[in-house]
From TrEMBL:
It comes from the Bacteria. Keywords: Glutamine amidotransferase, Transferase. This is Class II glutamine amidotransferase. CDD domains: YafJ. Residues 2-251 form the Glutamine amidotransferase type-2 domain. Pfam families: GATase_4. The keyword Signal does not apply. InterPro entries: EgtC-like, GATase_2_dom, Ntn_hydrolases_N. One of its GO terms (molecular function) is transferase activity.
Length: 274
């Protein structure tokens, strides 16, 4: 199973702490060695780092680990190849333009017999089922909203339909963001935590690193972190119920019709690694 990491905040925030633990899963504490990538939204731009090497050994990952890039939305991925060779073009997250803004997408799962018809506006460069699904998803959004939309409820409703359709071909855990909000779909395994005042002292599960967020935040900061499995071993993470699509904005899930945030909590002090 690939590893997903997302962050959505109400103020620009760096992801150095979470990424330090996440990076270790790419060949050190887990067996995912087929490449990794991370994307940061900065205003209308997106800063993307990709490397087909294991993240635990990657000099690019070492740079990101110590580079405090501040962003409202971040998506990262560690790959365990199921479809497509280990090559740069098959490395997540993927990036495309729609409605004059960038979209970033990363997928965890394996889609079988998935061969949709594309209009040609969005075409995969690599050979993964993930990039094909992303192109199809954007194709459908472009057809559904030819003039574009920034209505989070409209986007959520259409993405929910697409997640069900594409997910009928296999596991379809994914993270998707246009820089305004971040969508997280759980097909089998995905969890999140919202950090806000009073902030915790957090300890990574994959690396012996602790941070007191009270020392590096303000009382008004709010940060949602989404991951395949919990990144810390002393906080309570919320498991997203399989089959649900959550929308995050300003560092917390948005209450939308047909979106269930009722979830199963991981007990404090317990980490369930794949």
């Amino acid at each position: 199973m690939c590893q997903l990491l997302g962050m959505n905040c109400n103020v620009p925030t760096d992801i150095c702490f979470s990424f330090a633990g996440f990076r270790a899963r790419g060949g050190l504490t887990d067996h995912h060695r087929d490449g990794w990538g991370i994307a940061f939204f900065e205003g209308a731009g997106a800063r993307v780092f990709l490397d087909p090497s294991p993240s635990a050994d990657s000099p690019v990952a070492e740079l990101v680990k110590h580079y405090p890039i501040r962003s409202l939305n971040v998506i990262a991925h560690i790959r365990k190849a199921t479809q497509g060779e280990v090559r740069l073009e098959n490395t997540h997250p993927f990036q495309r333009e729609l409605w004059g803004r960038y979209w970033i997408f990363a997928h965890n799962g394996n889609l079988k017999n998935f061969a949709p018809t594309l209009t040609g506006r969005f075409l995969p460069v690599g050979t993964t089922d993930s990039e094909l699904a992303f192109c199809y998803l954007l194709d459908r959004l472009a057809q559904r909203f030819p003039q574009g939309t920034r209505d989070i409820a409209e986007l959520h409703a259409e993405l929910r339909v697409l997640a069900i359709e594409i997910g009928s071909h296999g596991e379809f855990n994914f993270l998707l963001s246009d820089g305004d909000q971040l969508f997280a779909h759980c097909s089998s395994r995905l969890c999140y935590i919202v950090r806000k005042a009073p902030f915790p002292v957090a300890h990574l599960a994959d690396e012996d690193l602790t941070v007191d967020f009270n020392e590096v935040t303000t009382p008004l900061d709010r940060v949602a972190v989404i991951a395949t499995t919990p990144l810390t071993d002393n906080e309570r993470w919320t498991q997203i119920v399989p089959g649900n699509l959550l929308a995050f904005r300003d560092g917390e899930p948005v209450a939308l019709r047909d979106t269930s945030t009722v979830a199963q909590d991981y007990p404090r002090g317990t980490v369930t690694n794949a």
